[in-house]
Design brief:
Elements (H helix, E strand, L loop, with lengths): L3 E5 L4 H17 L2 E8 L8 H14 L1 H13 L4 E7 L2 H12 L3 E5 L5 H6 L3 H8 L3 E5 L1
Parallel strand pairs: 1-2, 1-4, 2-3, 4-5
Length: 139
C-alpha cells in the first residue's frame, strides 16, 4: 500500500471526488498526503519577472481550491501538504512525482467527447502512461 500519495487537483468535480478518495485512503493507510495544483502556462516566459508574474496568477486562481481542500482535510483530521506549480500539467506532475518519490498519484476523471480523446487525449491518459508510480483514477 502507498505511504506517500500525491493528489492532483484542478478544481473540477472529478478532482473533488479524487480528494475525498485520497483523504479516505490516506487515513486508512496512515500515509502522507500531498496535493498539487498546476497553473498551465500558454507561453514560455522570457525572464524571471514573467515567471514570478505567472506564479502570482496561479496563487490567485487556485487559492480557493487549496483553501477548500485544506479545510476538508482538517475536518477529516488528515494532514495535507499543498504545492502549486506553474507549467504544463502533465510534465509538471510527472516531474514532481519523480522528484519527490511518491508511491501513488490520485487524479479525478473528467469525461470529454470521444473525438476530443482521439484527437487531443487527456491529462489523465498521459499521466497514466508517464507517471513513475501507481495511478488511481477516480470517477
Amino acid at each position: 500500500m502507498p505511504s506517500k500519495i500525491l493528489l492532483a487537483n484542478d478544481g473540477s468535480q472529478g478532482a473533488a471526488r479524487a480528494l475525498a478518495f485520497a483523504l479516505d485512503m490516506t487515513k486508512r493507510e496512515k500515509a502522507e498526503l500531498h496535493m498539487v495544483c498546476v497553473e498551465e502556462t500558454q507561453w514560455m516566459p522570457g525572464n524571471r519577472e514573467e515567471v514570478i508574474g505567472e506564479k502570482e496568477l496561479a496563487n490567485h486562481r487556485f487559492e480557493g481550491v487549496i483553501e477548500d481542500a485544506t479545510a476538508e482535510a482538517r475536518k477529516r483530521r488528515v494532514k495535507l501538504e499543498t504545492h502549486l506549480l506553474v507549467g504544463h500539467p502533465v510534465k509538471a506532475i510527472a516531474a514532481f512525482l519523480k522528484e519527490k518519490g511518491f508511491d501513488a498519484l490520485v487524479i479525478g476523471y473528467v469525461g470529454h467527447s470521444q473525438v476530443y480523446g482521439m484527437l487531443i487525449g487527456s491529462t489523465v491518459d498521459r499521466l497514466v502512461r508517464l507517471a513513475p508510480c501507481t495511478v488511481i483514477v477516480v470517477k
